[in-house]
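User: what does the whole thing look like in 3D?
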Amino acid sequence: MNSADLTRELRAARPVAGDALRERVRAVAATQPKRRPSPFARFSPRRLALVVVPAAAVIVAAVAGVSALVGSEQPQRLADTPLATESATVAQDAAGSALAPSAKAGAATSETAPSPTQDRAQRYSAQLTISVKDNDALSEATQSALTTARRLGGYVVSVQYATAETGAASMTLRVPTARVQDALVSLSGLGTIVTQQVQIDDLQGQVDELGKREAALRERIARLSARIAAPGLDAETKATLVARRDAARSELAQVRAQSTRVTGEARFATIQLQLQTEQGSAVPPAPSRFDRALDEAVRILAWEATAVLYALVIAGPIALVALVARLARRLVRHREDERLLGVH
Amino acid sequence: MTLTRPLTHTAAPATFAEAAEHHLDDVFGFLLYLTRDRALAEDLAGATFEKALRLWPRFDARRGSARTWLIGIARTTALDWFRSESRRRRREEAAALPEAHEGDFVEGLSPALQQAIASLSAGEREVIALRVVLELEGEQVARVLGISPTAVSTRLSRALKKLEEKVRDDELR
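Assistant: Here's the predicted 3D structure for the full assembly of 517 residues, as C-alpha cells:
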C-alpha cells in the first residue's frame, strides 16, 4: 500500500459525528444571543490600537489648536483694556498729576493721549518713540518734526541725530500747550509709534497762590506808599516804611518772576521725541494673532509631548517586560504542546 | 435537516449555528485522530463549540475561514485537556499523553491502517487528519498548528512515510 492508497482510504473513512454530539452542538448553538454583538467586540486589541492611537493624536492636536486659538485672543483684550482705562483716569484726574503710558507697540496713536484742560494751567510732558523705515526716512522725519514744532508756534530745545547701519534721532520740542494735540497727531504720523507716555502736572494751584501773593504785595506797597507820603512823618519812621516798601517791592518782583516762569511752563508743552530706524528698534513688532496662535499651539504640543514622554518612560519598561513575558510564555507553551503531542 | 459537510467552504457563515452545522464533522474528525478516543473526541468537540460560541463575536472571516478557526479552538481545547490530564497522571506514568484504548477509533479503516495510525504520535496524527483527511491547505494547517508551511510539509511527509512502513510491515507479517 502506497501513500496514494493510504490517502484514499483515510479520506473514504472520514469520521462523522454521532447524533448525540450533533444534538449537543445544536443545543449549544441555540443559546447564541439574538442581539447584534457590540461593534467593538470584533476589534482585537491590535485593531483597536490602530484606531485609538491616531484618534488620540488627532484629539491632542485639536486640543492644542483650539487652546492656541482661544489663548491668542486674550493678549489682545488685555492690551486694549488698560490703555482705555488709563486714558479715562487722566481725564478724570485732570486737576492732579497723571501718567498715561502706552505700552503696546504700534497699537497706540496720539489720539489716545490725554489732552490738556484748556482753562487750567498745566505742565504737559510727552515722550514719544517712533520707528521709521530707514535712515532716509529718519532724516525726513527729523526735519518734519522740527518744522512741525515751529509751525505750531513752538521751538526746538535740542536735537541729536546719528546714523550708521541703524539710525536714531533724539529731540526736545516745546509747543504751545493749546496745540500739543496737533503736535502729537502730526508727530505720530512720522512712523510707527513704539512707545508713548504723557505726563500732566496741574500748576493752577501755584498760579492762583502766586496771584494772591502778588495782589497782597501790591496792596501792601500801596499802603506803605500812602503812609510814607503822609505829612508830619518823622524821619526815622519814614526811613523804616521806605525800607519795608522796598522789601515788598523786591518780593513782588520775585513773585512776578515765579509767576511768569510757571505760566511759561504751562503755556508750552515739552515733547521728547525719539526717532529710530526699524532695525534699531528696541521693541520688536507685536506678533500677529496667527503667530501667537502658532506659538501657543507649539507650546501646548511641547507640553503634551513631554507628558507622553514621561508616560513612556514610566510605562515603557513595564510594557517591555510584559511583552517579553508574553513571548516567553507563548514559547514555553508551544514547547509544552509539542511535548504533549510527541513531536520530535 | 441533514448535516452535510462541504468539501470546500469559502463563504463566511452568517451565524454561529450555521458554522457549527457545517464544520462539526471536521472538528470531530480532527479531535478523533488527535485523541484516538471517540468518547473523548465527542466531549472535546462539545467543549470546543461552547468555547467557540463565546468567542464568536471576535471571529473575523477576513483573517481565516470558520473551519480553520473552529479547528484551532478544537486543538487548543484538546491541548488544555492533555495538559491537565498530564498533570493528573504525572505520578502514575512517564508518558505525557494518555493512552487511548486499542480498539478501532475510526470506523471504516482497515485493521492494519488502524494500528499503524495508533502507532503514530499525536503530532503526526493531527497533521494527517488536517492535511489528508480534512484536506486543509498547507497554509491553513500551518496556521492551526502555529508552525510554518514548510514544517507542515516535512511533518506530513514523515508521518505518511511512517504510516506506509507500518502498514507494509503489518502486511508482511
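In plain terms: Residues 66-89 of chain B form the longest helix (24 residues). Chain B touches chain A through 55 residues (CB under 8 Å).
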